[in-house]
Write a structure and sequence with these properties.
The complex is a heterodimer of chains A (about 290) and B (about 250).
Chain A: E1 20-26, H1 32-45, E2 50-54, H2 62-70, H3 76-100, E3 104-108, H4 111-120, H5 125-131, E4 140-145, H6 148-159, H7 176-198, E5 201-204, H8 209-223, H9 234-240, E6 244-246, E7 260-263, H10 273-282
Parallel strand pairs in A: 1-3, 1-4, 2-3, 4-5
Antiparallel strand pairs in A: 6-7
Helix pairs in contact in A: 1-8, 3-4, 4-7, 8-9
Chain B: E1 36-41, H1 48-61, E2 66-70, H2 78-86, H3 92-117, E3 120-124, H4 127-136, H5 141-147, E4 156-161, H6 164-174, H7 193-215, E5 218-221, H8 226-239
Parallel strand pairs in B: 1-3, 1-4, 2-3, 4-5
Helix pairs in contact in B: 1-8, 2-3, 3-4, 4-7, 6-7
The chains are: A alpha/beta (about 290), B alpha/beta (about 250).
Chain lengths: ~290, ~250
């Protein structure tokens, strides 16, 4: 049975949300998108229908938030609530229907990033937590952890400074670089605190993307329905550091026992067409 | 006027900076603000907007610096609310959140700084509108109250109390049709807009009644003649302005 963080939204039935909700958290530049782009085809290949979602992708508030951020006059309370609107719209219209249809939902950031951003801006963390008391508790939160030193080259040297990502709204007196360092340091400290509070599974994101991916694979396999995972391939993944391919459910004659077929270093077959069709019909029309 | 024990609609006093260097120094409580905040509440057709307009004229004629802020009017959030309503995308939760976003923008950019600057701020609808509507839509009472903890507490909250049938008579006489969310048609109470409106506004009315003691709303009998209601409103407002001559921008 799925749970929320304390409060239930009207009309939300938690009893039939059979899918898995997996959160990838981490600061900017931690490689969340890279990992989700690796995890999605891997999960689909195993026969899981996947929905991936992330901040400001809601049909309702995504565009509004982007426009509001262009103006640089978005207050911290307004910002917190605008993001909450975006999150709840996606939760109600994407995440919940996908879980109901038995999907694995991979979400790029979750309420924790929003808590961290608000808190470092001086917004009462208890207030933010109360708002997100209606959020679903995920099955796992993987925290891609990166120190500020490693984060600087990854973010700044690849795409330059961004006003909000550098926290210029809260450090107006500093130049972009100093502001960025202060802001990201504060965010990291807050993430570390949240990690303890909410029991994140930390993953060292400073290493090679393939190694991070292998670690995520290993841990995600323990989250997925054990019915489909016997014998558990975790050991071989850990040893080999490479992807494990499991026969997709629909190809296997014995439905509940996927067979390990061996490894092929990051060469993925095309997505299973039937699952893609399923995603587009059962999933939500807002999904990109 | 004190509010419920577990609810603090405290002006930003609830925000404690996680990083003192990162945010402005501690916020004062509303009692420290030199401004005054008068707000009007009531169901559609209660005549509250007329009364606020008359109060506005009077305050201006007395020389106060008066600023008016209307529910659901933030330019930053307007397009999103419009999109949600037009495409009927709003659930009770997102309806609640987008309105709180709108209110937050007006609080951060107008209401709070104006209170600090010493203006007389008038609001047509305030947090109580959200409390009434969102709870009528099925949102948790405490969750909605918590959502608005950042709001500045009004100097006086006038509640224009009117029987349901009177309000419905006024609304239906004045308009051709009721809007989707206004009539609560999103809740499936009835397919017939007037009937849905009646049931929905009935729930809202119950919530307002509950809030009178909870938040110490100042009740005005909205069935009285307009002039008589206005005389009461001005008398009460006057009581909160008597020692505030410094708020006048001209003699």
């Amino acid at each position: 049975m799925r749970h929320t963080y304390g409060k239930l939204l009207p009309g939300l039935n938690l009893s039939d949300l059979a899918g898995k909700l997996i959160v990838i958290e981490g600061t900017d530049g931690a490689g969340r998108t890279t990992q989700i782009n690796l995890l999605r085809p891997w999960l689909e290949e195993m026969g899981h229908a996947v929905l991936d979602t992330g901040m400001t992708r809601s049909a309702l508030a995504g565009e509004g938030i982007r426009r509001a951020k262009e103006g640089n006059n978005l207050g911290r309370v307004t910002q917190t609530l605008f993001y909450a609107t975006d999150f709840i719209d996606r939760m109600e219209n994407e995440i919940v229907p996908a879980l109901r249809a038995g999907f694995v939902v991979l979400t790029d950031r979750y309420i924790y990033s929003l808590m961290a951003r608000g808190t470092v801006r001086g917004v009462d963390p208890v207030w933010i937590r109360d708002i997100y008391s209606v959020a679903l508790k995920p099955d796992a939160v993987f925290y891609l952890r990166l120190g500020v030193e490693q984060l600087i080259p990854r973010v700044i040297f690849s795409r330059g400074f961004d006003y909000w990502e550098s926290g210029v709204d809260i450090f107006p007196g500093l130049d972009m670089y100093e502001s960025f360092c202060n802001y990201q340091k504060a965010l990291l400290a807050e993430f570390d605190r949240l990690s303890t509070q909410y029991g994140f599974e930390a993953v060292d994101a400073s290493t090679d993307a393939k190694i991070v991916f292998a670690q995520l694979q290993e841990r995600i396999l323990t989250v997925l329905d054990p019915e489909f995972l016997r014998p558990r391939p975790a050991e071989s993944v850990a040893e080999s550091n490479i992807a494990v391919r499991i026969t997709p459910r629909h190809e296997s004659s014995e439905r509940s026992v996927p067979r390990l077929e061996g490894v092929d270093d990051f060469t993925f077959r095309p997505f299973v067409p039937s699952l893609r069709a399923l995603r587009h019909t059962n999933g939500n029309s807002h999904a990109k | 006027m004190d509010i419920g024990t577990n609810v603090r609609i405290g002006p930003f006093e609830v925000f404690f900076p996680a990083q003192p260097a990162a945010v402005e120094s501690a916020h004062g409580t509303h009692r420290d603000y030199p401004g005054r905040l008068f707000i009007v509440e009531g169901i559609d057709g209660s005549g509250k907007s007329t009364q606020l307009m008359l109060l506005h004229k009077w305050l201006e004629s007395k020389g106060y610096g008066v600023v008016f802020s209307e529910w659901n009017s933030s330019p930053l959030v307007k397009d999103t609310t419009k999109l949600g309503k037009k495409k009927k995308m709003l659930t009770p939760a997102t309806f609640s959140l987008i309105h709180s976003t709108d209110f937050a923008d007006r609080t951060e950019k107008n209401i709070l700084p104006l209170m600090k600057a010493g203006a007389v701020v008038l609001c047509d609808r305030y947090v109580y509108t959200a409390f009434a509507r969102d709870v009528a839509r099925g949102m948790d009472r405490k969750w909605v109250r918590d959502l608005y903890r950042f709001a500045v507490k009004p100097t006086v909250a006038f509640y224009f109390r009117v029987p349901l049938e009177t309000a419905i008579g006024r609304i239906t006489a004045a308009r051709d049709c009721l809007k989707y969310y206004e009539a609560g048609l999103d809740l499936g109470l009835s397919d017939e807009p007037i009937q849905s409106f009646r049931i929905f506004q009935g729930h809202i009315l119950e919530e307002y009644e509950r809030m009178i003691p909870e938040f110490g709303l100042t009740v005005i009998d909205a069935t009285l003649p307009v002039e008589e209601q206005q005389a009461q409103v001005r008398r009460i407002a006057q009581g909160h302005l008597s020692r505030a001559t410094d708020l006048r921008i001209r003699p």
